């Protein structure tokens, strides 16, 4: 066989999916493993959302839809973004994608050309770097401050003539930190001064505890240079529905649309009707899930603290990012093999010495996980 794609061959597989698969394999053998490695809400999708999709199925809405999304959903998203995120948005600036991950990929393909650099703020989600690489760009990693997980002077120092994009993620996966308004203004000022595109991943925006979410695209002069990415997986417990969306300036959106036409074509038609119900229906379900995540967060952080384990600011999302002050691969292996608790090593997020624990699990499982980990430290 002739050599296969060097580009894809040089990209590391997803560490989160690999560890989740390892945990499932152990469970299949009858081993009692508590898997806290994936970022997936353990709640069922709210009933009014599933009923809307079922109704769409029964009405025969199973055929091709417009590539960027059904008109009802494009309007619902544009209204939501204008109302909640303070970003002026027309339905023509919206594209619905097969998950927020597809929106990130399409954004990189639309903006980057070979050799362009895209800055990633670490710790960072595992798929930003591969999306940049697949698009032919070069990822440049800039660490956030160790004290408060906010950008500092190193961000400005990393910008050069090849820089084309800055990626921000608030609330953060994996750290759970929320970027302050001053930090986002720093990013906005740099983008304007250096004529850069910003990619703002806001998938966890509704899962915030005691902080305020600010959208980068709402800052003055940023709407025309910001791609805002969001979706339904985290806030509405719709991970398997594979529905995300992007808001972008029309020239960028046009290229994203072209790319999507030749890859996934569109998001699933009947699923989009569920997304309309998610945005237009009662948001009590989101509040209830967020309140439960906060209760779990407080218990998990307290339990880890009693073991002497420090965590990053857990102000959003549903992760405890734990400073294990050592070899994160070794710690992860020990927690899985001896403690039967699966977490993700920090190297996957460009943060060696840390591990990510998801608290998107029942309180009973989380209590048991902390108890199992405690036995390894006594």
Short description:
This protein is of the alpha/beta class and 378 residues long. The chain contains 13 helices and 13 strands. The strands form three sheets. The chain has a seven-stranded mixed beta sheet, with helices on both faces. Strands 9-10-13-12 form a four-stranded antiparallel beta sheet. Strands 1-11 form a two-stranded parallel ribbon.
What sort of overall outline do the alpha carbons produce when their principal axes are compared?
globular
Q: Number of helix segments?
A: 13
Sheet with the most strands? 7 strands, mixed
Backbone CA Rg: 20 Å
Structure description:
This protein is α/β, with parallel strands linked by helices and 378 residues long. Helices cover 40% and strands 15% of the residues. 49% of the residues are buried.
Secondary-structure blueprint:
Elements (H helix, E strand, L loop, with lengths): L5 H4 L5 H14 L5 E2 L11 H12 L12 H14 L9 E4 L2 H12 L5 E6 L5 H7 L3 E6 L9 H5 L5 E7 L11 H14 L2 E5 L24 E6 L12 E4 L2 H12 L7 H12 L3 H23 L3 E2 L7 E5 L4 H10 L3 E2 L1 E2 L8 E5 L4 H14 L2
Parallel strand pairs: 1-11, 3-4, 3-5, 5-6, 6-7
Antiparallel strand pairs: 2-8, 7-8, 9-10, 10-13, 12-13
């Amino acid at each position: 066989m002739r050599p296969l794609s060097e580009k894809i061959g040089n990209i590391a597989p997803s560490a989160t999916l690999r560890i989740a698969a390892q945990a499932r394999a152990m469970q299949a053998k009858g081993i009692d493993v508590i898997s806290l490695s994936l970022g997936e809400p353990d709640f069922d999708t709210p009933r009014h959302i599933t009923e809307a999709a079922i109704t769409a199925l029964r009405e025969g809405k199973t055929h091709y839809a417009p590539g960027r999304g059904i008109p009802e959903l494009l309007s619902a998203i544009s209204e939501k973004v204008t109302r909640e995120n303070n970003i002026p948005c027309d339905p023509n600036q919206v594209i619905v994608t097969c998950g927020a991950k597809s929106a990130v990929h399409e954004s990189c393909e639309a903006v980057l050309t070979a050799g362009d650099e895209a800055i990633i703020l670490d710790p960072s989600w595992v798929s930003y770097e591969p999306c940049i690489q697949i698009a032919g760009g070069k990822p440049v990693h800039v660490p956030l401050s160790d004290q408060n997980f906010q950008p500092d002077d190193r961000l400005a120092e990393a910008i050069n003539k090849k820089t084309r994009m800055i990626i921000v993620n608030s609330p953060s996966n994996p750290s759970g930190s929320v970027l302050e308004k001053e930090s986002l203004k720093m990013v906005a000022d740099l983008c304007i001064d250096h004529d850069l595109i910003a990619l703002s991943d806001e998938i966890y925006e509704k899962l915030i505890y005691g902080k305020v979410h600010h959208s980068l695209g709402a800052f003055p002069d940023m709407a025309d240079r910001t791609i805002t990415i969001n979706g339904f997986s985290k806030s509405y417990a719709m991970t398997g529905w594979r529905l995300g969306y992007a808001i972008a300036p029309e020239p960028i959106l046009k290229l994203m649309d072209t790319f999507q036409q030749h890859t996934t074509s569109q998001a699933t038609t009947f699923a989009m009707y569920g997304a309309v119900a998610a945005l237009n229906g009662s948001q009590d379900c989101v509040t209830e899930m967020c309140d439960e995540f906060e209760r779990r967060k407080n218990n998990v952080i307290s339990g880890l603290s009693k073991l002497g384990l420090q965590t990053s600011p857990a102000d959003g999302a549903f992760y405890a990012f734990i400073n294990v002050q050592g070899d994160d691969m070794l710690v992860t292996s020990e927690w899985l093999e001896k403690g039967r608790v699966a977490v993700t090593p920090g190297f996957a997020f460009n943060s060696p010495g840390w591990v990510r624990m998801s608290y998107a699990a029942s309180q009973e499982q989380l209590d048991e996980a902390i108890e199992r980990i405690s036995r390894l430290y006594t």
